[in-house]
User: Fold these one by one.
Assistant:
Number 1:
Amino acid sequence: MSQNNVEVSEIHWLMDMFQTVDVGLVVLSADYRIQVWNGFMENHSGLTPRQVRDRYLFDLFSEIDEEWLRRKCDPVILLKNRAFTIWEQRPYIFKFRNYRPITGSAEFMYQNSTIFPLTDTMGKVTHLCLIIYDVTDVAVSRIELESMNGHLRTLSKTDFLTGLNNRGFWEEALIKEYKRIQRSGHHSTLLMCDIDHFKRVNDTYGHAAGDAVIQHVAAAVKKNLRSTDVAGRYGGEEFSVLLLDTSVEQAMFFAERLRKNVEAMAVEYNQQILRVTVSIGVSEYNEAMTEYRDWLEGADKALYQSKAAGRNRITKAE
């Protein structure tokens, strides 16, 4: 085979590889006009090389953030260095639809890219080459894993019945606040809340009815919370609310609003209307508390006093 035939064959192989390789290959002039467009790009965009030839990239693909891509490409031209983009920073450069059955949950193709300079015989950068990698499988797997981990983290701190924080997570929050407030000297107040005569509800109507009552009271607690407050199910029919940066006087308003909401509440169960009330103990942090359990004990004693005084009332710790 002659040297000319060998060279022609090699060019043919290279062109065949260029068109069939499973990555996108795009060559841009220095003024961002498309010069080369391979089969991958044609298949996913629906545009042939003839249709895109010499077209201004940002006119043809309006979804591309021109300022962002120029910030990536301009140093490649000036410094002759490569640049990279990853899907975690920006999901894609070209907004291609995702047609893979395995990663069908993704509407668009996630992409990584490499951008490198192309020089002439004098060493001057005249063009840019963009290599586009389809990383949808990896991206979707990562997103699903992170979502699952987030769900597991939520489950680990959430009470299943009420959706409030469980006791373990809430008590950790109390410990953190106790340590913080020792340093800051701010006011924070703790509420302990208990459903009155709850055993009577369970004995009369059954545990399913008791669960419905607990859920309705938990909803009333959530309704009254501010974004900074931390509420939890402390155990059984008992709830706890940590009011950050809140004086006992302000906490009494919160407690009274909660008490009234529960008193006015009607729980429908098996075509019957159940009504309950709550007793509440309120304790503001003070410097005499040598550990966080003292704070809990203060609120718990105040709650007991509300129970002993006739229930459906609020007692402030001494």
Note: The two ends are 103 Å apart (CA to CA).
Number 2:
Amino acid sequence: MTFKYHPIQRKEIGTSLSEINVTPLVDVMLVLLIIFMVTAPMMQSGIGVNLPQAETNSSPAEEGLTMTITQDRYIHIGESPINIFLLENKLKEYFYGKERKVVFIKADESLPYGYVINVLDVTKKAGVEVVGLVVKPIEERDRQ
């Protein structure tokens, strides 16, 4: 009895590099999304101002410009500080070509009344039609 050699034909299973496992990518992206969602509110610090309290609540509307005056008499438009002597020109430049000229002022309660009036005067000279003062509402426990 003689054996004949029959080579076994092997089928090569092709592995393609075009099939990338995306599960680790999705996991990393979800972790990054959560990190950004948690840290984003912390990055919006703003300028620290101790607002005066009032019984009525007033907060700036979406369409106006918010101007902040700190305790050390620095005026901020947005995040950038501006000198009171340059304020009129800056406001004219900001409102150039705009229909409504509305400014909301957030002034520290320890500022002298005369200084706030000077800023209001410069704001009115710049052609601003409506000026609002932003206050912090009195909490229920403070009213009693």
Note: The chain has a mean pLDDT of 79.
